[in-house]
Write a structure and sequence with these properties.
196 residues, disordered N terminus, alpha+beta, globular, 7-stranded mixed beta sheet
């Protein structure tokens, strides 16, 4: 049972986090990028099988977080916030200290920083992105490098994403949503979302 849930969470887009009470509830797995650098992930999965056990799942997630934090030498690199089941749907929440903690814990690519920091970290930015403001307009490497102080989220995961500021451009596999989130549809390629 324990291994099954670890695999289910990993496949769905491992653990999650909502920032706290009063925030929007999500109906899809969502990764929120906070201005303070924290990553809050909310995982939404089917939990309708009668043999699923919420308490056992919570214990498993807590143990995984503790093991990761101990190995990383940080008490709160990853923090389990909550998990609940309602009408056969599981909502689990985790908070990560930064993008590196998210990537390390989930074993999935995720970078968030300025475009200049991304370039200095080895991302060559040889991509063509769609403008969020002008239909049909594209943004290439030269334009991105000129936007060196803008932020970029680079992720390899099919999830919904929220960032803290105005979105400027994004990869072809990104679909803007009505609730101001962005849906990443490709989990094989690196997806780029540039925001202020």
């Amino acid at each position: 049972m324990r291994k099954k849930w670890i695999l289910v969470l990993a496949a769905g887009c491992l653990l999650l986090g909502l920032a706290g009470c009063g925030e929007k509830e999500f109906d899809r797995t969502t990764v929120e990028i906070k201005k303070n650098g924290h990553i809050v992930q909310t995982i939404v999965e089917d939990f309708s099988e009668p043999y699923y056990d919420l308490e056992e799942l919570q214990t498993t997630i807590e143990n995984e977080c503790d093991a990761y934090n101990e190995a990383a030498g940080e008490k709160k690199a990853v923090a389990f916030l909550d998990a609940e089941e309602k009408d056969g749907v599981l909502t689990a929440k985790l908070e990560y200290k930064n993008a590196a903690a998210y990537a390390g814990f989930n074993k999935k690519a995720l970078f968030c920083g300025t475009i200049q920091e991304a370039y200095q970290s080895g991302y060559d930015l040889a991509v063509t992105l769609r403008s969020a403001q002008e239909d049909g307009k594209t943004v290439g490497k030269a334009e991105l490098l000129e936007m060196s102080k803008a932020h970029v989220l680079i992720i390899r995961e099919a999830v919904d994403v929220r960032v803290w500021d105005k979105v400027l451009c994004y990869s072809d596999d990104v679909m803007p949503q009505e609730d101001n989130s962005l849906r990443v549809t490709d989990q094989e390629m690196l997806t780029y979302i540039v925001f202020q």
